[in-house]
Amino acid sequence: MNSRDAVLITPAELADRIQSGEPVAILDVRWRIDVPDGRPAYLDGHIPGAVYVSLEDELSDHSISGRGRHPLPSGDKLQEALRRWGVRQDVPVVVYDDWNRAGSGRAWWVLTAAGLPDVRILDGGWAAWRASGGAAETGAVDPQPGNVTVPQKDLYAGSRPTLTAEQAGAGDVPLFDARAPERYTGDSETVDPVGGHIPGARNLPFATLLTSDGTFLDDAGLARLLSEHDIDPAVPVGAYCGSGVTATVVIAALATAGHDAALFPGSWSEWSSDPGHPVARGNEA
């Protein structure tokens, strides 16, 4: 399996798997900054058999302080949730969303950081599924309890590389800010109380990794974008966003080309909450 196929699955491939009766756990992770609760949309229509996952309540642990707006859950809590979602040992997982791959990117990152070996993002999400003629069902799915085991108990030091605030600010690795340009520059900050970016970070808006229909850039398009941003495949890079959600889209896109980028999970919400951290504004890294 090549790098792209290890990260993404097409609607046609998922439909074939469902129709053939091959086991697969499908997780609906709808989330938007302005509509964080995707459950009502899920109930109105979802991929048959898909179980709703709350990014806010199940892919984050808000009991943790000092690690941004969406702290990572523990491996133990994630294992409980995965079993509640019906995920079983050695059964592949497909995650999808309906907004710019943010929810599915977060789920993909969290589950693979926890050590699950086969987790893929539905390329193009819910819109692509429907456009391809994929079936839909309404109402909630109540799966049989799963039995999956989470090998990694601390996702901050799990199977995917992460950066602490100190590492993110040290300048030892190229650092990319996945937020929209106006949030990066500090000209319009609508989510966090402080505008700007981590000194030294360059802007790589996560939406630029997607095409107009919400699918990930193909290999050629991604190679052009990486070249434009002087990203050397041989040099490790880091990424952050507002709170560790949309930066996972950048990391997933890079993973399709075989690059294993590090995430600063607390991202800008953690960095800017410490008055001792310097803040850069404007377009200068």
From TrEMBL:
Keyword Secreted: no
Entry's Gene Ontology molecular function annotations: thiosulfate-cyanide sulfurtransferase activity
CDD domains membership: TST_Repeat_1, TST_Repeat_2
Record-linked InterPro entries: Rhodanese-like_dom, Rhodanese-like_dom_sf, Thiosulphate_STrfase_CS, TST/MPST-like
Keyword terms: Repeat, Transferase
Residue intervals of the Rhodanese domain: 20-138, 169-280
PANTHER family: SULFURTRANSFERASE (PTHR11364:SF27), THIOSULFATE SULFERTANSFERASE (PTHR11364)
The protein's name: Sulfurtransferase
Organism lineage: Bacteria, Bacillati, Actinomycetota, Actinomycetes, Mycobacteriales
